[in-house]
Amino acid sequence: MRCHILLISRLHLLIAVMWAVAPQLKAQGDAMLTHYWAVPTYYNPAAAGDTDHIRLRGGMRAQWVGIDNAPRTFVGAADSPFRWLGKRWGAGVVVQQESYGLFRNLTADVQLGYKHRALKGEFTIAVQAGLFNEQFKGSEVYIPDDDDYHQSTDEAIPDRDVAGNALDLGIGLRYVSPRFTAGISLMHANAPEVTFSDDSGSDSSAGNLAGEAQKKFLFKASRTLYFDLQGNIPVKNTLFEVLPSVLLRSDFTFTDIAATVRARYNRMFSAGIGYRYNDAVSLMLGAELKGIFIGYSYDHHLSDISKASSGSHEIFAGYNLKLDFSQKNRNKHKSIRIM
């Protein structure tokens, strides 16, 4: 069994190395979080300011625990509504750091959305812009001697650490009503490209016939379409409510879908189950007291990866600060003696 686990671990590392054998590298994509419903701005900039709170969220996902170099994702998000020129707007920031295999990426984005009330709800159209940073740890590439597909001298694999930056853009549309929320977004809309340069080669010009041209490696993040739907169904004559949600992701080549059903009591305590198609089943627990939110989830994977991994874990925490947009209190202040 131990040898089997070690073999799968080596295969996972080799998959990460194999991504580098082509001149154009492909991203793993945004993380498919089990807590997708808790950080909606991660998938859609139009979710910024969709409540009357300053909303802070942060958390991490440890995927395939027990396998070396498995994906690790850290996400931080903040958003808030505000009024400007007599209109309602939403603003947000999202930061992500992710590692998988020998890749590391960092994204930092700002979001701005315009809100309009219609059809007994509120529509938001929003844009997002930020930095996309990608790194590849070429200095840690390891190719076993018995590998029949790759050689340690393969020029398609960087032999040193390389990194690059690109502008990343997104756009989203979202509708919020008392009983459900629906949104659609296009992330990495400009398909940002990061060029890795390896300067180890010498200049072939200036009479150096034995020199090598500078090697370049292109990384491209795929345009990704998201659709999400969340509901709120009160259970009659009780303090319970049922919160179903669905998230669909497609990069126009592959499509993923996740579905979740949670039960919440008195808007404080919740528990639920989730399913990601051909990937995992999930259990989750959450609590929200006086604006403080904390949530935990465990994923049991349905593929053979479960033989080498003890599953995936997420933990998220946050805080909601209620805002007052009423005009009657616009110029009134409480005495600090009675606060």
Q: What does the model show?
A:
With 339 residues, the protein is mainly beta. It has a single domain (45-197, 216-322), classed as Beta Barrel (Porin). It is 5% helix and 53% strand. The chain is built from one helix and 18 strands. Strand 5 and strand 6 (121-137) form a beta hairpin. The longest helix has 17 residues, at 2-18. The chain starts with a helix and ends in a 17-residue tail after the last strand. The relative contact order is 0.17. Mean pLDDT is 83; it is low at 1-27, 201-212 and 329-339.
- Quick one: how many beta strands? 18
Q: What average pLDDT do the residues reach?
A: 83
CATH architecture name: Beta Barrel
The end-to-end span amounts to 63 Å
CATH topology type: Porin
